[in-house]
Design brief:
One of its GO terms (cellular component) is cytoplasm. The protein is an alpha/beta fold and 341 residues long. Helices cover 19% and strands 28% of the residues.
């Protein structure tokens, strides 16, 4: 399938640069999987489309303030570091800029010596392996020195770190937020619970590969990045019971979707498990886990718009996206939402 089939025109001014003051005040486009029509709503109207016996599945990953600015200890040259993945203990896989200045043995200093690092090796994609040294607790030091690694299409500085976290973020480890969840407030989640809708949590640590464009002309040739996921026994039991009772599993975000579909594919049901997934969902795909999806509006020709198209069909989704452009919806991480049921 040709990548160009998932292209659409997106004016740059529709890319949301800052979050709305009230998380749940965003707009919501509701797409009906059966009739292929859509309605314009606000996010708080989501309660009208949920019912007792449903289950919302949320990704409780927490974004690390993973961008660090430091200097080479010997020359004082400025170096930017982006944490990608913890290898073990204080050793991390990172990206450095400019990369050519960071060789094996290079020593870096951050925050006037509050944090130091030594380059221990190279990665195939141009990354580096750094071993950090510090006093105290690493994540507390990182919270003082690091910045949120906002997506490359967001040019504005974020005034409040928490606005790039969901209100239920708990498990540290993501390089990017599961942005469909940014629309929920604690009050809205409580209202949904009181309706008899179950809230369940999984974890998928979002990697920077989520922003990597599809470079292959043919979708089938694209290689997905791997991301770590986990599901506990309580969530597995909850989801199996929902399925058996005829309830709907509604995934909040493409990250939750990829986790649920990976587990259902590999085990035939929901089980307590963890691992790495590189599942690539594109049309035609038969969903094994979810019955509905809450998601944001995604980049043209991205793996995410392909996933969304798999749940309805490509023509309907592109029609909906063109309508969203016409109606000046806000796009991407801080943008508006879509509900597919």
């Amino acid at each position: 399938m040709d990548i160009e089939q998932f292209d659409f025109h997106l004016p740059e001014e529709l890319i949301a640069q800052t979050p709305l003051k009230d998380r749940s005040s965003s707009r919501l486009m509701v797409v009906n999987r059966e009739t292929r029509d859509f309605k314009h709503q606000h996010f708080t109207d989501i309660v009208k489309y949920l019912k007792e016996g449903d289950c919302l599945v949320l990704n409780d990953t927490k974004v690390l303030p993973a961008r660090l600015y430091g200097v080479k200890e010997d020359t004082g040259a400025k170096i930017e570091v982006l944490l990608l993945h913890q290898e073990e203990n204080d050793t991390w896989e990172v990206l450095t800029k400019p990369a050519k200045k960071v060789k094996v043995g290079t020593e870096l200093v951050f925050g006037d010596g509050m944090l130091k690092a030594t380059c221990k090796g190279y990665k195939d994609h141009g990354g580096r392996i750094l071993e950090f040294s510090y006093d105290g607790i690493f994540y507390e030091v990182l919270d003082q020195l690091g910045e949120m690694p906002l997506p490359p299409y967001i040019k504005e500085q974020l005034s409040e770190k928490d606005r790039y976290q969901t209100v239920y973020a708990k498990e540290e480890g993501s390089a990017a937020a599961p942005t469909a969840g940014l629309h929920f407030t604690e009050e809205l989640l409580q209202e949904i619970k009181e309706m008899g809708v179950t809230i369940a949590f999984i974890t998928l640590h979002v990697g920077l590969g989520t922003f990597r464009p599809v470079s292959a002309d043919s979708i089938e040739e694209h290689k997905m990045h791997s991301e770590f996921y986990q599901m506990n026994a309580e969530t597995a039991e909850t989801l199996n019971n929902i399925k058996q009772s005829g309830g709907r599993i509604i995934s909040v975000g493409t990250t939750s979707t990829r986790t649920l579909e990976t587990i259902a594919r590999d085990h035939g049901k929901f089980v307590e498990t963890s691992g790495w997934t590189d599942i690539f969902i594109y049309p035609p795909y038969e969903f094994k886990a979810i019955d509905g999806l809450i998601t944001n509006f995604h980049l043209p020709k991205s793996t995410l718009i392909m996933l969304v198209s798999s749940l309805v069909d490509r023509e309907t989704i592109l029609k909906a996206y063109n309508e969203a452009v016409k109606e000046k919806y806000r796009f991407f991480s801080f943008g508006d939402a879509m509900l597919i049921l």
